[in-house]
Amino acid sequence: MGLLLFVVAAIYLYLSFQLPNYQYAPIDADVIPKGLGILLMILAVLLFFSRAVETEAEKKKRDIPKKEFGVLAAVFAMIFLYILLFELVGFVIMTILFIFFCSWFLGYRAWKTNVLVSLLFPVVMYTIFVFALGINLPRGILPI
């Protein structure tokens, strides 16, 4: 698994170095992908050289019950829909909808908290990225 993750990290890191540079952005868009790729490579090497032996109890913990595959499929579908509509609808609206419906689907029923987090997180992130860091995020249908 360590070797597989290392190969995936190497490909990811290679592709992150292909991102275009923007000369007027204080922090370029490739900082996070490059950092994550390097971190994944380091963790893959550590996993490869780890000497931990998996017990039968740990193997049973790793098995996913068949009823959970539907939940995983639904969450992957939500992620796919989020990615698909991200640029068209925009960061703020899609993130609000994704956080709210994904949390609700996974069983979080505190409506006030869910609505508050679903609204505040994307608005704060959009404000930080666009106005403080100068990194443009997709506006979509909003006139921001």
UniProtKB/TrEMBL annotation:
The keyword Ion transport does not apply. The chain crosses the membrane at residues 31-49, 69-85, 91-108, 115-135. Keywords: Membrane, Transmembrane, Transmembrane helix. Pfam families: TctB. The keyword Transmembrane applies. This is Tripartite tricarboxylate transporter TctB family protein. Residues 2-138 form the DUF1468 domain.
